[in-house]
Write a structure and sequence with these properties.
Two copies of one chain form a homodimer.
Chain A (H helix, E strand, L loop, with lengths): L1 H15 L27 H11 L12 H4 L46 H10 L9 H9 L2 H11 L7 H13 L3 E2 L2 H6 L8 H13 L26 E3 L7 H5 L9 H4 L7 E3 L21 H13 L5 H12 L4 E2 L16
Chain lengths: ~350, ~350
């Protein structure tokens, strides 16, 4: 696995710069916007519609939950539950990741089973551990009962079958791609403001690289390649977790109960393979890991060093790396609350 | 009961105008702001803190619901459920009323058992059918675990016991008093723009007065006196519902299963007495009545005419009154989403 990391880093270097390898920087500031797929261009109207849908409980089985119930964009983009409860009363399969900066991801779900954000949204609406709607038709029907939605779909997608499951997922995806946290202290540092992060955080960054964390958690999203650069949408950047099996953490945090991507592919080489998670805003997204078993960032750092590199970190190093990770908390753009269209409210 | 209505209307007339009785107008435009109690003055910082608390699921037993879960301010201020389910899994006792324009009310809960908005909030946080927290201490502790909240409480309420149950309810109340929907079509009409409402709506208004609806649903909030004018905070404006017992609607919609204010006072004269509900934005707050049993506004109009005045309205009259009620939908001010302070997230 380490070898593939090196190839990717080299490819990136070739792709983006003509500087010498000595100047290679594993980290770059987050761009203002993620790559936008050509079949789902952004527009303010589409983003606004997606925001309404994101907050609309009419899209859930119990008519009580909305997307924000498990991915709270007013906070870090996730929720403090290890595994949130879906609108069907069933626990989600895994911890809910943040949706801030989600547009910088090439694959979706922690096991990478969706190859686009739009596909992931479609699955969420029907999953028991999420919105738990019965089927696509039920979702589309619930939108069709709201004239204020139908109007917007027509304006965006034309007269021919505008209210479709496809267009619904496109609208939601457009909103999610607007969720970008720019200008973290670390971004400022990367842009040249050397005092934007503390000396402890700088030492943490150096340790982060030296230990090997940056061999997966690199580049603009601290999660490897982003769409359109070395990797294309749908290509996954995975890593073994735990890489080192048998530490005390496996049992303490049930790290191997969930076998990861093998559940999708059936391929033995995918056992315990997981999508590399972005570390942006990681200080705001406790609890940690696919099962949400680890409650604090300090403990997550210790677990990672052991599970991936069989290293037991000194307390000071854990604190420095944690200080570094705190500098990855970005600025959350001010969002207006959507106004949810009326009617249909009394028909459901 | 009719007699008391007349006295109140007369008092209002004496209180506010020197025009002749012939000029008396039962309706007035909604003021830009509700009366603000002297012991809980508004400030932008307080309103902002209240908004954060309103959207924070850490204040609920299941850490999943927030105030907005049952009082959706992104919509009409309520939810489409007849009785929403609280954070303890228990159904709310009654339908959730809208919180838009809630500051214009003199008593709280449909049976008037709280005499201030602050008191109503305190009860909601602990009620099984609402936020279902164990006790006041647990609520206060959950705030104290979030440094970003503690900072704001100190800035607003000083160093001496700033994070208190009192101050929490004051902050939330300040936010709620900011929720005002001005400039409905009817307000524009009242201000002199005679074509702001349709002829059907005008005829509906006349019918509304003639039938007797306006003897309770009058004045700025279409719900009788507001605080500081004829009535003071804590004084309730109640009416019998059903006033005429025995119509087919009693059984069809279970109108008498809940005996109303008598449950609070034990006084037989309070059987089936209810706080007069505001009709502002009523087109957005289906389903209707204390038990949410009636799904459409048209049906609610029919039920009211029969239950209060033993009148069976012609279809055309129902449609006209409904058209009038639709003109009471106001403008919803654009609100920014709060940013919920981090930390404490991994400790609960």
């Amino acid at each position: 696995m380490r070898f593939s990391r090196i190839i990717i880093v080299s490819l990136l270097w070739v792709a983006i710069s003509s500087v010498s390898i000595a100047d290679f920087q594993p980290f770059q500031p987050l761009p203002a916007h993620p790559p936008i797929p050509s079949d789902n261009l952004m527009s303010p109207m589409k983003t606004e519609l997606g925001k309404q849908l994101f907050f609309d409980a009419r899209l859930s089985k119990n008519k009580t939950m909305n997307c924000n119930s498990c991915h709270n964009v007013m906070a870090g983009g996730s929720v403090p539950q290890a595994k949130p409860t879906g609108a069907g009363g069933q626990l989600a399969q895994r911890n809910a990741p943040t949706l801030w900066n989600v547009g910088f991801t090439t694959i979706y779900f922690l096991d990478g089973r969706a190859t686009s954000l739009e596909a992931a949204i479609k699955e969420h609406l029907l999953a028991d551990g999420a919105m738990a709607m019965a089927n696509e038709e039920q979702v589309v029907d619930s939108i069709k009962q709201v004239p204020g939605y139908v109007e917007q779909f027509v304006a965006l997608y034309g007269d021919e079958n505008p209210v479709s499951y496809d267009n619904l997922s496109k609208s939601l995806a457009a909103y999610l791609r607007s969720l970008v946290t720019n200008d973290s202290a670390f971004d400022q540092y990367l842009r040249g403001k050397k005092d934007a992060i503390s000396d402890a955080a700088k030492e943490g960054m150096n340790q982060f690289i030296e230990i090997g964390c940056a061999s997966c958690h690199f580049w603009v999203n601290m999660a490897g390649p982003i769409p359109g650069l070395a990797f294309q949408m749908g290509e996954g950047f995975y890593e073994l977790f735990p890489n080192h099996l048998g530490s005390e953490y496996d049992a303490r945090y049930h790290l191997t109960d969930d076998t990861g991507r093998i559940k999708v592919t059936g391929d033995e080489s995918d056992r315990y393979m997981w999508r590399v998670a972005s570390l942006r805003n990681v200080a705001l997204t406790a609890p940690y890991f696919h099962n949400g078993a680890v409650k604090t960032l300090e403990e997550a750092v210790k677990v990672m060093a052991m599970a991936q590199y069989k290293k037991r970190l000194p307390k000071a190093t854990v604190e420095e790396i944690t200080a570094f990770l705190h500098t990855l908390t970005g600025q959350f753009s001010v969002q207006t609350m959507p106004r949810l269209p009326a009617a249909g409210l009394d028909k459901q």
